[in-house]
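RECORD TYPE: inverse folding
INPUT: structure tokens
STRUCTURE:
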């Protein structure tokens, strides 16, 4: 029977799949080493150096040469760093540095930190496959730190030039002075940046993480800001009525325990002529709609190993990262919003921007 089955399979298809799996194996290894390169500052060091020996690179970065040399081996065989065997020197091409350094256009190395972070909870996730439930936020080491870094380059840097202009009149209103709330504010970088730029406006940030709020408050204090405040608060307990002219959430709704309640609370807290700006993952609610998604496998993995499971850990809805545009529109309508416009930014392949209002 085994021989018959073997004869029936498409050998070329099997071989192509095996090659693909080998590529996945190598790419997974490179992902881990890329995270290390970011955290140790090796990419930033290489970007500033001409072709150099492993010893010179290690000395410049203040690291152990033996480990740096082995790391460089992964980078060279992975096609990230170039190697000259004639003098045994290594070079990070400037075209690669654009996507691997803190001064680059988009630092993919920072994003790849998520891979080892997610790997630390693999055992707990497997247990959930058998027993259900979820893995709580507290199980994820460095998560808020990495998310703050990611938010800095994807949200904070784009706020003024790209994101806020999606809301007509928002810049002018902020200059005049309005009340702004960011739900799920994390470490508060977005609100602190806006508080600096628009001193006439008043900003509030809510997040249920004491660690993140402490970071936000410290940053605000260090910047000498008096028009921003942060509070530890579960978004499902917001009970304010018509208090804000602009409410924002940045990739914060899909992992809420009670996203329907949160959206309803946001609708209630918004003034009648106010705007809710919801940035969330650009995807379909159905897997067949995501077959060509450029980061589909990554999004479903992050969902399974973080966004979905942290919600389920709180006996929540478990929407997951890929809750999708269809579900988002359905839930916004149910929350009381009757005007929703979905916008996209050319440089942002991951997110939709929902411009949401209540029109009587």
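DESIGNED SEQUENCE:
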């Amino acid at each position: 029977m085994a021989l018959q089955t073997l004869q029936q399979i498409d050998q070329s298809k099997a071989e192509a799949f095996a090659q693909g799996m080998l590529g996945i194996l190598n790419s997974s290894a490179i992902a881990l080493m890329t995270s290390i390169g970011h955290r140790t500052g090796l990419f930033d060091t290489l970007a500033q150096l001409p072709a150099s020996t492993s010893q010179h690179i290690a000395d410049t970065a203040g690291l152990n040469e033996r480990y740096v040399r082995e790391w460089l081996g992964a980078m060279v065989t992975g096609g990230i760093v170039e190697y000259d065997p004639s003098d045994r020197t290594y070079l990070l091409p400037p075209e690669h540095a654009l996507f691997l350094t803190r001064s680059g256009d988009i630092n993919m190395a920072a994003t790849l930190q998520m891979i080892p972070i997610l790997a630390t909870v693999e055992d707990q996730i497997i247990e959930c496959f058998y027993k259900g439930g979820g893995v709580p936020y507290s199980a994820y080491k460095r998560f808020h730190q990495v998310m703050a870094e990611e938010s800095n380059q994807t949200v904070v840097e784009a706020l003024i030039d790209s994101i806020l202009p999606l809301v007509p009149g928002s810049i002018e209103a902020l200059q005049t002075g309005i009340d702004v709330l960011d739900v799920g504010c994390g470490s508060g970088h977005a609100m602190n940046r806006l508080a600096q730029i628009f001193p006439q406006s008043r900003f509030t940030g809510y997040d249920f993480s004491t660690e993140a709020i402490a970071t936000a408050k410290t940053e605000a204090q260090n910047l000498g800001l008096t028009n921003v405040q942060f509070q530890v608060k579960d978004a499902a307990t917001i009970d304010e009525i018509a208090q804000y002219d602009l409410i924002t959430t940045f990739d914060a709704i899909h992992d809420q325990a009670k996203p329907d309640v949160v959206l309803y609370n946001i609708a209630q807290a918004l003034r009648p002529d106010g705007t809710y700006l919801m940035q969330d993952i650009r995807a379909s609610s159905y897997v067949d709609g995501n077959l060509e998604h450029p980061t589909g496998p990554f999004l479903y993995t992050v969902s399974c190993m973080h966004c979905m499971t942290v919600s389920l850990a709180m006996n929540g809805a478990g929407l997951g990262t890929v809750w999708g545009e269809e579900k988002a529109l359905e839930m916004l309508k149910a929350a009381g919003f009757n005007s929703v416009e979905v916008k996209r930014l050319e440089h942002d392949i991951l997110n939709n921007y929902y411009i949401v209002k209540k029109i009587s």
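NOTES: DSSP finds 17 helices and nine strands in the chain.
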